[in-house]
């Protein structure tokens, strides 16, 4: 399971966009020799991006604007590829890959972690960031929770998000999923900690720190980032853009522009307003993460 990139949708506006987008699919059927989707997107001038509505990865803000770390990267790259317009298609995180494969949208632009399970279903760009985990805890961190082993040893009540990688990280140290509080998003997680329904909410460091800062919580705080492990080895959480398996031409063209942005420093300048720092930049490849 890769971590969820979801939540905080703009309600009815998001659903309206989803309905509108469903009427204009770009078919990749019959694609060969790397696919023809890029040519089709250039012809129509618009690419549809699947998002899961999570701040800061991809969401519709309070003004109805489509933004986030991944969409802002996509806007720049697709414009340079000859596709000037991007259209958001909000959906559940768990529906992103099925939606991509059924052509409900053209690209997953949701900060999705790249892992072998997902690589068996879609192809990925090289990652545009890597991430560590962090917790939301009560002010002062009274149970002194700094990693998943602490949660297990102190029998703390853990909450996390639907389909989050953090479920697997916790299970790896012995915490049963049936004992976890599974919530729709990080805002629900913050509220659960504030209300005492959970001792800790686990998520990615940027997500956790953003929601605590935005809510200006007086009852909860975010812990320092830490590295999660699986089977005793560091589990690298690195996210990128997902494409249908036959569309290698589009993925490769996207990668060319992404690498230029990394080399020039433009990538960091784009994502810095969303809480990303030099520490989250990476030279890892999708090939490494898929294996």
Automatic annotation (TrEMBL):
It holds the Pfam family SBP_bac_3. It comes from the Bacteria. Keywords: Signal. Transmembrane segments: none annotated. Residues 46-278 form the Solute-binding protein family 3/N-terminal domain. Gene3D superfamilies: Periplasmic binding protein-like II. Signal peptide: none annotated. NCBIfam families: ectoine_ehuB. This is Ectoine/hydroxyectoine ABC transporter substrate-binding protein EhuB. The lineage of its organism: Bacteria, Bacillati, Actinomycetota, Actinomycetes, Kitasatosporales.
């Amino acid at each position: 399971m890769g971590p969820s990139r979801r939540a905080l949708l703009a309600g009815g506006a998001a659903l309206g966009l989803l309905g509108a987008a469903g009427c204009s699919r770009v078919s990749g059927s019959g694609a060969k020799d790397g696919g023809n989707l890029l040519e089709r997107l250039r012809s129509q001038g618009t690419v549809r991006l699947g998002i899961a509505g999570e701040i800061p990865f991809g969401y519709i803000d309070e003004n109805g604007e489509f933004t986030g770390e991944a969409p802002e990267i996509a806007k720049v790259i697709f414009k340079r590829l000859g596709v000037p317009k991007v259209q958001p298609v909000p959906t559940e995180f768990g529906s992103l890959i099925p939606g991509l494969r059924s052509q409900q949208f053209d690209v997953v632009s949701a900060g999705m972690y790249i892992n072998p399970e997902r690589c068996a279903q879609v192809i990925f760009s090289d990652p545009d960031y890597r991430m560590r985990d962090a917790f939301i805890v009560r002010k002062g961190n009274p149970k002194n929770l700094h990693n998943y082993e602490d949660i297990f040893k102190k029998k703390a009540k853990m909450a996390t998000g639907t389909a989050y990688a953090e479920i697997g990280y916790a299970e790896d140290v012995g915490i049963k999923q049936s004992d976890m509080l599974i919530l729709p998003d990080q805002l629900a997680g913050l509220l659960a900690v504030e209300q005492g329904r959970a001792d800790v909410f686990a998520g990615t460091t940027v997500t956790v720190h953003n929601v605590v800062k935005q809510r200006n919580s007086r009852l909860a705080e975010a812990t320092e980032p830490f590295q999660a492990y699986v089977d005793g080895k560091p589990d690298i959480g690195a996210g990128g853009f997902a494409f249908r398996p036959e569309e290698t031409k589009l993925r490769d063209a996207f990668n060319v522009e992404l690498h230029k942005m990394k080399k020039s420093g433009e990538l960091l300048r784009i994502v810095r307003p969303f809480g990303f720092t030099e520490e989250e930049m990476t030279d890892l490849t999708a090939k490494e993460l898929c294996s």
